[in-house]
Write a structure and sequence with these properties.
This protein is an alpha/beta fold. It is built from 17 helices and twelve strands. The strands form two sheets. A seven-stranded parallel β-sheet has the order 8-7-9-6-10-11-12, sandwiched between helices. It has a five-stranded parallel β-sheet with strand order 2-1-3-4-5, with helices on both faces. Bound molecules: adenosine-5'-diphosphate (ADP) and magnesium ion (MG).
Amino acid sequence: MISKTVLLLDENETSRKFIASVLHEKQFKVLESGSSKESLIIAWRDEPDLIVFDPILSDFRGEEFIQKLRQNVRTQDTPIIALSSDPNPMRRDGCMKAGATEYIVKSSDAVSVLGETLNHIFAVQTAAPVPVAAEPEEKREGLLIVFLSAKGGAGTSSLCANLAMNVKLHEPDARVVVVDLVLPIGSIGQIVGYEGKVNLVTVADIPAEQTTGEYFRRSLPEPELWKFQLLAGSPDPEHANHLNVNRIEQIMDTLCSAYDFVFLDLGRSLSRFSLPLIQRADLIPVIVSTDQSTVQLTKTVWEYLQSQNIDEQNIYAILNRAVGLEGLTKAEAEKIIGFTIKTTLPYMGSNFTLANNFNQPIAVKFPKDTASIIFKSISDEMIKLSRRLRAKDGLRN
Ligand SMILES: Nc1ncnc2c1ncn2[C@@H]1O[C@H](COP(=O)(O)OP(=O)(O)O)[C@@H](O)[C@H]1O
Ligand SMILES: [Mg+2]
């Protein structure tokens, strides 16, 4: 049975996540959006089977949103449910007149009313009951963001940690985990000041049935100021030699289903076990520094990734001026490598290293620095992009 797709628009993220979980339980594929403009684009591009939205919008009136959908052939007949935080009967009338299929006020029984409405809509449409028993094929939910570079010193680990921290800063309810897979020595533990014993190598030695999502959420450290949870990397080459690599896939699967965001630092450890992780990534930030040799090596890595069916749309290249030299320009680097560079991070002088040495996020140590502002916008963009790619991917399957 092919599951139905629902576009869910709610500007309130907490509410949206909750409704999304209810719809997931009912076996819908959910395309989430927090913006009415974006929702119109998704609705017309992807033609979902159903649209659920809260008519309290900042861009335009809920009624107008419905009218726009009704005026377009692609959505003229799509069922639209207003799941509204406005109990006012005038609002209900307005929405129904504009063409809503149903108007449900958010209240304690909204979930059961929504369930009945969905049963009704789809029973009428397909004369078949909504499937309830089948397990969803893909349990994985969290977005996987895999950081790569072609050469050490490009800033991969610092960016991975700082961008993950920014995601948590702006989406405090999101579950975020950072995983350090750089071999033979991880460095994120050092950057965030974690000195404990829990790391990839020790976790991989625990039997698979014990390393559940619950286990990770309970046991992984949450370094002070950084807000995310950390699965630190191998502390030294000796440990790395003993890493039980067969366990990596299951550990990553579990983390992807237990967290909303999994940030993975692969550094330049391209290997047999890291390739499948790159292939399943929603977004692949590739950190490029401006020197000739890194740029040349990045070209080689990019050629290899293309040969392994990595699509450019998943690449999020960041040019990081990790050293004070001028180096190559963005345009020159793009020309050599052959992919588009999405954003550039300026040279921050010793501030960056200083923040790292103090085990502090840039956003905490230097909140007014341009880099803090750029980090925020990069992390916002990365979230948006990976969500959009995931929605697209969900439709292809
Ligand atoms: N934009 C930047 N400006 C100044 N220093 C930077 C910048 N980006 C990174 N660095 C510094 O470069 C060094 C290497 O960074 P790191 O994140 O360990 O790189 P990688 O993980 O790619 O080896 C660190 O000391 C970091 O503080
Ligand atoms: Mg590193």
